[in-house]
Amino acid sequence: MLKKIQETTKYINGKIDSTPEFGIVLGTGLGGLVNEIQISATIAYNDIPNFPVSTVKGHEGKLIFGMLGGKNVVAMQGRFHFYEGYSMQDLTFPIRVLKQLGIKLLIQSNAAGGVNPDYEIGDLMVIKDHINLMGDNPLIGKNDSGLGPRFPDMSETYDKKIIRQFTKLARVHNIHFQVGVYAAVTGPTFETPAEYKYISILGADAVGMSTVPEAIVARHMSLPVFAVSVISDLGVEGKIVEISHDDVIDAASMVEPKMTLVIREMIEKLNIRD
Q1: 84 conformational bin, left if phi > 0, alpha if psi -120 to 50, beta if neither
Q2: What is the pLDDT of residues 195-229, one digit of tens each?
Q3: Which tens digit of pLDDT belongs to each residue from 139-165?
Q4: Distance between the two ends of the chain, CA-based, in angstroms?
Q5: How many Å apart are CA 178 and CA 167, to the nearest integer?
Q6: Domain extents in the chain
Q7: Nearest-angstrom CA–CA distance, 233 and 206
Q8: Would you identify the CATH topology of the domain 2-269?
């Protein structure tokens, strides 16, 4: 894998003229953050050696390089999912490449179903921890010690310092937010009422189909992670309604300006050091 990472990184470095400090994964309906970036380079996934290709509506499939909040960033405009048929190693490969390119912080976003009865559609939920219900792990198999340890610690998967910075800025702008636990499932089906209840009993506040594999791989490489969910539907008894992927995209898009504002300011104020 390390050889592939190096090959891909070499190709990308030949297309850009600066080192990104922040890596951003833009989830369903949240690709509009790209409009805030002063773009210096755009590379389509299907042009990048060894890169998967996004197949899901709402995921454009491009790497965007440029300036955001006065910092060099790279944004993944579209992510990859286990339900698309990719292996855990393949869908997290881009995160390893971003680390090799030089990023010091991984920022993730997603749309999720709220299972906490206090949540409402349109809430932002800062992820403080996760539960992996995907039945797989991207670190299964032979470990390459050049990438990270065999048994990485996950006691602080989501960086507490970055969480405090985000919540402080959200309060300054009077943006309502929650802080909770994200459960990751495989999809592509949305959950049944019984599954929503089960996930809630386990201790999660929201459920989705992404983010956790990338976070695991990032921590394997000692890369700090910050992640936020947009609550796009509710899995709470009495509030469960039929939902489609278009509904999720619409709900996420409505909240996008709030998240874009806070993430831009957070990047501007953060000083990430080696």
Answers
A1: alpha
A2: 999 999 999 999 999 999 999 999 999 999 999 99
A3: 999 999 999 999 999 999 999 999 999
A4: 24
A5: 9
A6: 2-269
A7: 10
A8: Rossmann fold (3.40.50)
